[in-house]
Design brief:
This protein is mainly beta and 267 residues long. It is built from two helices and eleven strands, in the order ααβββββββββββ. Strands 1, 2, 3, 4, 5, 6, 7, 8, 9, 10 and 11 form an eleven-stranded antiparallel sheet that branches. Strand 6 and strand 7 form a beta hairpin. The longest helix is centred in the first third of the chain and has 22 residues.
């Protein structure tokens, strides 16, 4: 019996080893199967179409001129035009200062071209002070902008994430004026004070560059030119030795330049 069992073990052991050897190890996955497929990063496509809102800060500057059309007010002003009824240039001064505010608008993109409308509002510190001195009196002038708003169309060309644009429309500004006329006297000095304010409407042109660093956020640098022009400004003159009375001056604001940087968010 033992011999039969031993013979069976001897016969079947080589057959088992042959099967194991022929089976071999488990097949490994091919190289193509082991490599995970990595999709190339696709840059998200952005465009300029949509409503946006933002904020800006900048700097404004310009020149202006006060003229008295009634020469009887300050008959001894240096630099007056000849003639008893000719206008007198009271002062020419420069104005500058900081502006800051916000903007809202809408763009529509057609291929590379972008068209839209925009409104901006800025608080303004653009102003100037100067004085004119004579032997008999001193005039101290102050001109100050309170705020400025612009409205108009933007037309631009988009290249990748950069937008080059021009703009045009109108501007509304609010200005304040004051003139202190100090009469120099050996006994006592008295001061006449003129104050006025006005809201002036004018044309506006400009242009800029805007860069979208995401599909929603963009930054811009912009230049605008306001044709403020001249106008007769009527205010109240309070005399030291009398009551208030109406007084008018021609104030030529000429033009105002502004450069601003802004940040926009597109919905």
């Amino acid at each position: 019996m033992k011999r039969i069992s031993a013979l069976a073990i001897v016969c079947f052991t080589p057959l088992s080893l042959t099967e194991i050897a022929s089976g071999g190890p488990e097949p490994l996955p091919s190289g193509k199967e082991m490599k995970s497929v990595v999709q190339p990063a696709v840059e998200q496509e952005c465009n300029w179409t949509g409503f946006y809102i933002g904020a800006h800060v900048g700097y404004g500057w310009g020149d202006l001129k006060w003229t008295d059309t009634d020469t009887s007010t300050f008959p001894d002003t240096p630099g007056a035009f000849p003639g008893p009824e000719g206008p007198e240039v009271l002062v020419e001064q420069s104005a500058d200062g900081i502006i800051g505010g916000g903007q809202i608008g809408y763009n529509r993109q057609f291929g590379h071209f972008v068209i839209g409308g925009e409104g901006e509002f800025s608080f303004s510190d653009v102003g100037g002070r100067s004085s004119v001195h004579t032997e008999s009196f001193t005039n101290a002038f102050e001109t100050k902008g309170e705020w400025v708003g612009t409205f108009g169309l933007r037309v631009g060309y988009a290249w990748k994430r950069v937008l080059f644009y021009a703009k045009g429309g109108g501007a509304v500004t609010h200005q304040e004026y004051s003139l202190d006329h100090t009469v120099l006297d050996e006994s006592v000095n008295h001061v006449d004070r003129f104050k006025a304010d006005e809201t002036r409407v004018s044309p506006m042109v400009g242009g800029g560059i805007e860069y979208a660093f995401t599909c929603h956020w963009s930054v811009k640098v912009e230049y605008t030119y306001l044709f403020l022009g001249k106008d007769d400004v009527t205010g109240t003159n309070v005399e030291a030795d009398g009551g208030p009375e109406s007084e008018s001056y021609e104030i030529d604001l000429k033009h105002q330049n502004t450069v601003r940087v802004g940040l926009n968010y597109k919905f």
